[in-house]
Amino acid sequence: MPNRLADAISPYLCSHADNPVDWQPWSEAAFAEARDRDVPVLVSIGYATCHWCHVMARESFSDPALAEYLNEHFVSIKVDREEHPDVDASYLAAAGAFTQNLGWPLNVFVTPAGRPFYAGTYSPPTPMPGHPAFREVLNAVTDAWTSRRDAVEDSAAGLAEALAQAVPAGAGELPDQARLADVVARLATAEDPVFGGFGGAPKFPAAPTLGLLLDRADSRELALRTLKRMGASPLRDPIEGGFFRYAVNRDWSDPHYERMLYDNAQLLELYTRAWMLTGERWARIVAEGIVGFLGAVLQLPDGGFASAQDSESTVDGLRVEGGYYALDEDARRDQAPPALDAKVLTGWNGLAIGALALAGHAFADEAALHLARRAADRLLESHRRADGALVRASIDGRLSPAVATLEDYGMFAGGLLELATATGEVRFALAARELIDRAIPGDGVTVAAPEGADPVLTAQGLDLATDPSEGAYPSGLSAIAAAAWRLHLLTGAGRYRDAATAAMVRLVGAGDTNPLAFGAALRLVNGLTSPVEQLVVVTPDGTPDVAGPDGPALLDAARRRTGVVAVVTEGQGAAFTAAGFELFADRTTRDGLPTAYLCRDFVCRLPSTDAAALT
Question: E strand or H helix at 141, and its extent?
Fold first, then answer.
C-alpha cells in the first residue's frame, strides 16, 4: 500500500502516514478514485494537537481489521483543518445537519461527487452511551450506500443545495450604538458571576467577544473581571506563561492542554489593552508571560511561529495528557516538552505579529518588537509567491499547496499595520496595503479571497462564498475588514472604510442573533460607529535619547492611549507621508522636541510638547 501522506506539509497528516488505513490527502484524485470504484468517501478532519484525534488514531485508525474494512468499502481522505480551513468550514456546516456535538475529529461521509450524507465526531472502538462503535458507524454507512442509494443521493443533493443558498443575511446598515448596547446587555446575562467567562462548562476564552466588551465603557468591567480570573486560573500555565485552549470545568480547571497560537496571540492583545486602560499590574504580568511563551516556546528558529503545542507528552516514559504541565519548573527540565505543530500559518502568525507589536509599543519592550519583526520578515520573504499571492502554510521551508484564505490576507495585513505604527517602519505598512488591495479589487467594496476558494470544493459546488464563523478567532471577512478600516485611519482613503462597512453589513444580522459567535464582527462594528482617536508622536531624527525634559513622559503617555497610535521620527513620518499615509502629513517636531498630534476622525488638536495634555 503506498504511503500517500509521507510528504505532507501537515504534522497531523504525517502522524497518520503509517496507519494501515490507505489515507489520501485532500485532492480531486481521491474523489476520482471513489467514482471509479463507486464507493463513498470518508473525509476525516482534525489537527495535530487535538487530544481526541490522537485517541481515535490509536483506537481505530491503527486497527488492521478496521483499516481493512475501510480500504475495501471507502476512499479515505485525511484533512488538517488548519491547513484547509475552508474545507473544514464547509464540512462543519454540513455536519450540523447530523449532529449538534460538532468538534474534532470530524468524520464526514460523502458521495463520490463530494456531497455529505452523514457525519459524526469521535467514535470509540466499542459502544459507549451516546457513542456507537466506529465499526457500527461504518457498517451502517455501507448498508445505506449499497441498499438505499437513491435516498442517500437525494438527501446529499438537498443538503448541498441548502448549503449553497446559505449566505449571511445582511441588515442593510450597521447597527447604531443603542443596538450594540442591547447586544452587550444580552452578553452580560450570560456572564458567570463567580468564575468569569460565559456560561457553564466546558469554558473557552471567547477572546473576540472579550475584545468587544473591553472596548466599550458600558461593558469594560465585565471583560476585566473575566481576564483577571482567567489569568489566575488553571487555564494559564504560570511557569511558561501560555494559555490552554479550553477548560472542562466551569472554574477553568481541568484544561485541555493544547496551547494554540491564535488563543495566545489574541489574549496577549487583550491583556496588553487591559493594562493600557487600567495600569493594573496583573494585566501586565499576564501579558508579559504570554510574550515569553511566544518567544521561548512557539517561535521557530527561522522566526515564524508554530501553530500550536501538543496536549500530550511523555513523562517518565508514559504518554499522558497534561502530565508535563503538572510538573514544576525544575522537574520540567528533565522531561521532553510536548511536541510542537511546527506548521507556520500565515493568518495566525499575523495575529501574533500584531499582538507582539502592540505589547512592544505599550511596554517599551524591544524584545517583543524583535519577535514580531522576525516573524513578519520571515513571512514576507517566504510566504509570498512570485505573483504576490500569499502562501497558506509551510513547514521547514516547504510550502503547502492549499490556497491562502481571506483569513490569511486580513490577519497578516492587520499585524503588519500594527507593526508599522509600533516601529515607524513604513515598509510594513506598504506590504499590508498591497495585501488589502488584492482582497478589495475593482469597485473597492467587494471583498473576496484573491485566489478564490479551494478548487476541489468549488468544482463540487460546496465552497462557502463567505464563511462567517468566528467563535474562537475572527472570520476572514472580519479580519480583512478590520485591516481595511485601520488602513483607512492611516491613509484617509474612503474606499477602505467603505469596504469594511460593506463587509460588516453582511454579517450584522448573524451577530445580532448570536453575539458570542460573532465577537470580532461586533467589535469592528463598534469601532466603525464610534469616534476614533488617532495619535502621532514625532521625535527628532538621530536622537539616541528622547530630547527635552518632557520627552520621556510624553512617550509614556502615548503608550497608554488606545486608538491608532504611531511614534515616528521626523524622517519616518516623511516616509509615511510620501507613501500616501495622510495621517502623517505635516507632522514635524516643535522646537526640536517630541511633539504629539492628537486627532479624532482626522480632526486634530494643535500640536503639543506637553505630556500632561495626553494624560
Answer: helix 134-147
3 state SS of 120: strand
Short-list 362, 369, 191, CA closest to 283:
362
Number of folded domains that form the chain: 2
Residue 230 near residue 263, CB atoms below 8 Å: no
Digit-coded pLDDT (tens) for 373-427: 999 999 999 999 999 999 999 999 999 999 999 999 999 999 999 999 999 999 9
pLDDT digits (tens, 9 = 90+) for 451-475: 888 899 888 888 776 666 677 999 9
Domain boundary among 126, 141, 165: 165
Contact 335, 398 (CB under 8 A): no
* CB contact at 8 A, 468 and 475: yes
**Alpha-carbon span 191 to 213, nearest angstrom:** 12
Cell 500584531 found at: 354
In a domain, 47, yes or no: yes
Which range of residues forms the domain containing residue 113?
A: 11-165
Single pTM value for the model: 0.94
Cis peptide before 105 (omega within 30 of 0): yes
Q: What is the DSSP letter of 57?
A: I
Of 136, 165, 194, the residue at which a domain comes to its end is 165
The 3-state secondary structure of 236-254, one letter per residue:
ECCCCCCECCEECCCCCCC
What CATH code is carried by the domain that includes residue 544? Answer: 3.40.30
Residue 583 in grid coordinates: 495621517
User: Strand, helix or coil at 16?
Assistant: coil
Q: Report residue 294 as a C-alpha cell.
A: 511566544
Q: How many residues comprise the chain?
A: 615
